[in-house]
Write a structure and sequence with these properties.
The protein has three domains: about 100 residues, Response regulator (Rossmann fold, 3-Layer(aba) Sandwich), CATH 3.40.50; about 140 residues, Rossmann fold; about 150 residues, Reverse transcriptase/Diguanylate cyclase domain (Alpha-Beta Plaits). Helix 12 crosses helix 13. The chain is of the alpha/beta class. The longest helix has 26 residues. It has 15 helices and 15 strands. The protein is flat and about 80 Å long. It has a five-stranded parallel beta sheet with strand order 5-4-6-7-8, sandwiched between helices. A five-stranded mixed beta sheet has the order 10-11-9-14-15, with helices on both faces. A three-stranded parallel beta sheet has the order 1-2-3, with helices on both faces. It binds guanosine-5'-triphosphate. This is diguanylate cyclase. Its EC number is 2.7.7.65. It catalyses: 2 GTP = 3',3'-c-di-GMP + 2 diphosphate.
């Protein structure tokens, strides 16, 4: 809600384009109320304070009475006003004239939207401190899990994979915050959970002890809401950045499947483990037939659609414990444990049929394709290179034998 249509448009466009979230603009309080009454699934209100039909308090009430998260965007810098507004459970006050204010707002909206899928663990034996931190985190959109001591915190972490952030108080009976941080790190590495240590004690060594034990950051109590939000957001941003870098390094960009390098790293570990445990392991290499023709007659974009469709079929076919990857070009890989004899042939032939029946809707029309699959089931002396070479040799036999077939022996 904003009376300057130009500024409102700039924010709305930036959010819609960069975050793909729908934005509705109101320029008066009356319009905003009508919109709010029309749906009840609003996620966030961004509002100015100067409107033709309402004063500041009424503007804020309009959103807060409906329990809607609110960010104030104001043209006036006034420290007193800022303090008063922040006391009203407003998430943030952004000054329009600050350079980059639109970028900041887009970042803030993105952060708040993503927070809804992140759980934060609050560990503190003091109920009031726990409640305070939990309330702040909920205000920023996080799901919150509370633990009254270290043991309860470790239990929560073991059972809840959505926990990506832990706020840990130092002064707790039994296990103190630093020790809990060490034990937490044995369960979850730094790229999985961000830890922020908290303490009200004036202990010069504590910050270093927390950080050396694996904490990402430290906050001294009492902290302001703004400092808390900045620290928490920075740490969660970093975690997500590490996640996207890991994705870039391990995933194939076009299909989203693990890439060749990641697949080989996993296989390098898995093959000897399975052999030592006496379990069967099948390596399959799958290649789309005459893919060059698909590209040549339907266009490169249609070829990309086909690659994505095969990747999706492969993922859907894979069982728990199977590993799939795009090996490169139009070639895919599947490592499947515990298959032999007729069950093995059935498994790969049904994958072949699944792809044969795919209809890919591309800009040039509907296209179909087939695949050839070479399979090697592990024998006692096969190492990874052997498995791959044998699967590849059988793929060649499948191609030479007429394509659209599985070759698992010979
Ligand atoms: N669209 C698209 N094409 C790709 C991609 N990666 C590789 N290709 C193409 O895949 C084709 C592979 O062709 P070939 O290796 O000659 O084999 P083929 O036509 O599939 O024939 P056979 O394997 O003998 O059945 C080449 O034309 C590459 O340009 C990609 O990411 N997207």
């Amino acid at each position: 809600m904003e009376n300057s249509r130009a500024y409102a448009r700039a924010i709305a466009e930036a959010i819609e384009q960069q975050l793909e979230l729908p934005v509705v603009v109101a320029s008066t309080l009356a319009e905003a109320r009508e919109l709010l009454d029309r749906h009840d699934d609003w996620f966030l209100a961004l509002t100015g304070l100067v409107l033709a039909d309402g004063d500041r308090e009424t503007v804020i009430d309009c959103f807060q009475d409906r329990g809607l998260s609110t960010v104030v965007v104001t043209g006036v810098y006034d420290e007193d006003l800022r303090e008063r507004v922040l006391r009203r459970r407003v998430i943030d006050v952004v000054l329009k004239s600050t350079p980059g204010s639109v970028d900041y707002i887009v970042w803030l909206v993105k952060r708040l939207e993503r927070n809804r899928r992140i759980s934060a663990l609050v560990v503190d034996d003091s109920m009031s401190a726990r409640l305070h931190t939990a309330t702040l985190l909920k205000m920023f959109g996080y799901r919150v899990v509370e633990a009254i001591d270290g043991a309860a915190a470790l239990k929560a972490l073991e059972s809840d994979a959505t926990i990506r952030l832990a706020i840990i108080d130092q002064e707790m009976p039994g296990m103190q915050g630093v020790e809990l941080t060490q034990r937490l790190r044995a369960l979850r590495a730094r790229d999985r959970v961000a830890v922020i240590g908290v303490s009200g004690r004036d202990d010069a060594t504590l910050v270093a002890r927390f950080l050396k034990s694996g904490a990402n950051d430290f906050l001294r109590k009492p902290f302001s809401r703004e400092e808390f939000f900045c620290r928490v957001s920075q740490n969660v941003d970093q975690l997500e950045l590490i996640g996207s870098l890991q994705d870039l390094a391990t995933r194939d960009f076009l299909t989203g499947l693990p890439n060749r390098r990641h697949f080989l790293e996993q296989a390098e570990r898995l093959v000897p483990q399975m052999r030592a445990a006496g379990r069967r392991l099948a390596m399959a290499i799958l290649d789309i037939d005459h893919f060059k023709r698909i590209n040549d007659s339907w266009g490169h974009e249609a070829g990309d659609h086909a690659l994505r469709a095969v990747a999706a079929a492969l993922s859907a076919h894979a069982r728990d414990g199977d590993h799939v990857a795009r090996f490169g070009g139009e070639e895919f890989c599947l490592l499947a444990p515990d298959l032999e004899g007729a069950a093995l042939l059935d498994y790969f032939d049904s994958l072949r049929q699944r792809i044969e029946h795919l209809v890919v809707h591309s800009p040039g029309g509907e296209l179909r394709m087939t695949v050839s699959i070479g399979v090697r089931a592990v024998t006692a002396d096969d190492d990874l290179q052997c498995l791959l070479a044998e699967a590849d040799r059988r793929l060649y036999l499948a191609k030479a034998g007429g394509r659209n077939r599985v070759v698992a022996s010979g």
